């Protein structure tokens, strides 16, 4: 395979082709004229054809030199752009970041972080994917996503988990429900109530967290209906089929046909954590973590 001419010699030719003056080009490149001449001669020898016509009075490009200049000037612009693009990736200012999120982070935490992250890092391509908490753990372990918003706490030696929020839980009831007459809602008020919850396929982690909280108070929830998404849960509640339990982040999205009351108990909270692999030290991940820290509440 034929050896390609050195990049330094090509860059020297491009500079000379712009000036068409050995003295000025040598000064611009901080070379003496003999060194400049040697580079051009070496380039022409490696190519096997002349690039310049030289007389004692002027320097001009041959037709081959004109073609070589046009093509390589474009190549050098692309080369410079590739260096800048690679530098942005190395500095965490470009590249790809894959972010997973679950429903409770989709209302405020993730969108707010995305807005600020896009403003600070416009060259990073961010791909968002809704994945339930248990699925995120698998996706992170397999390297399918880089970072994820999930229900916490999460403690694993292979992962770093940063708590972003700890929000109180609320009951959502139909209008005029008897529970709304009580001055405050405590966990024991839900004994015997018809409870509507997300199904185990989509809401598994949240269901386990709720079960742990209510079991700690000696309460078994009477789950009478299940649905896969928030819209269906809201519709079932509004129709008078029961009540449901939401974290505070979803309260503003429930519509006009349900009422909400906070469950007054310090342990009845939902935590959102941001999780990534300890071995993933990419600048894109670290940049996103810094933005997410600024958005998160860090409540205990």
TrEMBL record:
<keyword id="KW-0805">Transcription regulation</keyword>
<dbReference type="InterPro" id="IPR005119">
    <property type="entry name" value="LysR_subst-bd"/>
</dbReference>
<dbReference type="Pfam" id="PF00126">
    <property type="entry name" value="HTH_1"/>
</dbReference>
<keyword id="KW-0238">DNA-binding</keyword>
<dbReference type="InterPro" id="IPR036388">
    <property type="entry name" value="WH-like_DNA-bd_sf"/>
</dbReference>
<comment type="similarity">
    <text>Belongs to the LysR transcriptional regulatory family.</text>
</comment>
<protein>
    <submittedName>
        <fullName>LysR family transcriptional regulator</fullName>
    </submittedName>
</protein>
<dbReference type="GO" id="GO:0003677">
    <property type="term" value="F:DNA binding"/>
</dbReference>
<dbReference type="InterPro" id="IPR036390">
    <property type="entry name" value="WH_DNA-bd_sf"/>
</dbReference>
<keyword id="KW-0804">Transcription</keyword>
<dbReference type="InterPro" id="IPR000847">
    <property type="entry name" value="LysR_HTH_N"/>
</dbReference>
<dbReference type="GO" id="GO:0003700">
    <property type="term" value="F:DNA-binding transcription factor activity"/>
</dbReference>
<dbReference type="Pfam" id="PF03466">
    <property type="entry name" value="LysR_substrate"/>
</dbReference>
<feature type="domain" description="HTH lysR-type">
    <location>
        <begin position="5"/>
        <end position="62"/>
    </location>
</feature>
<dbReference type="GO" id="GO:0032993">
    <property type="term" value="C:protein-DNA complex"/>
</dbReference>
